Amino acid sequence: MTTNQILFYAQIAISVILIILIALQQRGTALGSSFGGGGENYSSRRGIQKNLHYATIVTAVFFILLSILGLVF
C-alpha cells in the first residue's frame, strides 16, 4: 500500500466518524432550533454533550490535516 492509499482510506474512515459525531449532536434538537428559532432555551453543554462537541472538533481538525497531507504527498 502506498502513502496515498493509506491517506485515502484514513480520510474515508475519519469522515464516517465525523458524520456519526455530528448526527449524534443533532439528535436532541428540534427542527425550529436548527434554523435559529427557540433561542430562549439556552443551556450549557454538560457531560456527554460536551465530550461529543470536543470529539467533533478534534476529528474535524484531524480530517483537515489528512486532507492537507493528501495534497502534499
Number of helices: 3
Distance, first to last CA: 14 Å
Radius of gyration: 16 Å
What can be said about the biggest beta sheet?
Answer: none
Helix content estimate: over 70%
Assess the beta-strand content as a share of residues: under 5%
H/E series: HHH
In quaternary terms, these chains amount to: single chain
Q: Which segments are poorly predicted (pLDDT under 50) over 5 or more consecutive residues?
A: none
Q: Based on Cα principal axes, name the global outline.
A: elongated
How many runs of DSSP E, i.e. beta strands?
A: 0
Task: Name some characteristics of this structure.
73 residues, mainly alpha, 3 helices, elongated
List the helices and strands and how they pair.
Layout lengths: L2 H24 L4 H4 L13 H25 L1
Report on this model:
The structure is a single chain. The chain is mainly α and 73 residues long. It has a domain at 46-73. The chain is built from three helices and no strands. The longest helix is centred in the last third of the chain and has 25 residues, at 48-72. It is elongated. The two termini are 14 Å apart.
